[in-house]
């Protein structure tokens, strides 16, 4: 309760201090070329409530109800009414002080209190100054609230982005494992002597997708190395029906990318590729130009020339991840040419450690 009263008491004290200052302001102006202290004190004291009433009416009613909600015509109309009513009251104060304090003796009347327009301007100068600072304070509070709202919206968007990324990463695990375990199952059924070798290679990949993928970024070199291991697994599965051309230029250890960024493209090429003339051909090219990644992969394909792109959970996820991780910094294109399905990806301004 005390904590509630303190700001209220402070506000009342500041208002009181301000109006005392206004009273001395009136006293100073009306005492010009006049020594009638009694009249000046009473006239300033009678004019002060009028000024307070006009000021509080404008600040607490006209401005919030009409000006701030952009009802300019009504604001102008009621402002005119306010000027008319306040002018009438000022005239009453003027004549009241003249009658009761000076007995209609205008000769001894302080010269500054004789000019009605000057008195009206003085009242509205105070009211205008308070209104100006009220609007200034309102704009400051509105700007501050907008900044807080924008920060909250940004924070919410970042949280949603992080949750979506985590969801997409979680989908990578079962998708990749499903395809690879099918390969192991096929070799196990045949009781192939290569089954242990496949399991060993798979264990390396599992370590990558189960642990490294949870990191926000990994070294691009790691991603390339695990692509090579995945290709070795596929070579075992396809035996003599697979031809792979793999090239990667010099890649700095400092360059980092989102984990499992390129692997889905490679996996998709094996999954949707077709044998042409008895072979599945895969062509992978990874280059780094300064801190821009250029990735190109192609596979032999017997689909329609203008058909739909090769689909899959992996590629759907990778598109979403690219948009979340590299907005306005990536280009992803696919095309079919001479029984080859090509996918090209470029990402600018990669992270560096």
How is this structure best described in words?
The protein is α+β, with helices and mostly antiparallel strands and about 350 residues long. It has eight helices and eight strands, in the order H-H-H-H-H-E-H-E-E-H-E-E-H-E-E-E. The relative contact order is 0.07.
Shape: rod-shaped
Q: In DSSP terms, counting alpha (H) and pi (I) runs of 4 or more, how many helices?
A: 8
Q: State the separation between the terminal residues, measured CA to CA.
A: 55 Å
Strand content: 5-15%
Largest sheet: 5 strands, mixed
Low-pLDDT runs of 5+ residues are none
According to DSSP, the number of beta strands is: 8
Order of helices and strands: HHHHHEHEEHEEHEEE
Mean pLDDT: 83
Portion of residues within helices: 55-70%
Topology diagram in text:
Elements: H1 2-30, H2 37-67, H3 72-102, H4 116-189, H5 195-210, E1 218-219, H6 220-238, E2 242-248, E3 255-257, H7 263-272, E4 280-289, E5 292-300, H8 313-325, E6 330-336, E7 340-347, E8 351-352
Parallel strand pairs: 2-4
Antiparallel strand pairs: 1-3, 3-8, 4-5, 5-7, 6-7
Helix pairs in contact: 1-2, 2-3, 2-4, 4-5, 4-8, 5-6, 6-7
